[in-house]
Write the structure tokens for this entry.
Amino acid sequence: MFNFGVPGYRPEWLSGRSAITAAHGVRLAHLTGRRLTRALLVWDLDQDEWFADCPILLDFDGEQVEINHWKFDEVSITWNTIDPKLALDWPDFHLAWRDDAPDELTALVGQPCSAVELLMWRNRDLVEGTIVSLGFSFPNGQVTIYNALDENGTEFASPGDRYARYTLGPSDP
């Protein structure tokens, strides 16, 4: 299994809102009210840019969710499995974890999560509802982690009507 150069990482690929809700809905919902204490991206040190193929780590008071998109419609959500102190090992790339970029993401650190949503992209050119993004709302901001077609993407504005929005609550299966 390919680990994206992350020691110990074993992605668990899921597709579709129902599969993600069944596997992770309750745990994602329980992030609500927890403070975002750290957000990490993998950085390509040679190019000085985000290496979007690797997982994004969001730590909420010691509960670390690890999100990674790939292929057309798959997302892996894992919990507390990645140690960002360990060196990354992806041949031909000089990579490192970074917790100070982009500014929009670091601005969310220290705030409590006010909502977690599964977002289904609405697009007539694609099969509607196949691509699932994760939205995290905070009192002073928002981050959406989406499938940028075989890698992660991030947005910091409200998802708007491009997405059908499903807020996760503690009673979700």
The chain has a mean pLDDT of 92. The first helix runs from residue 17 to 29. The chain has one domain: 13-167.
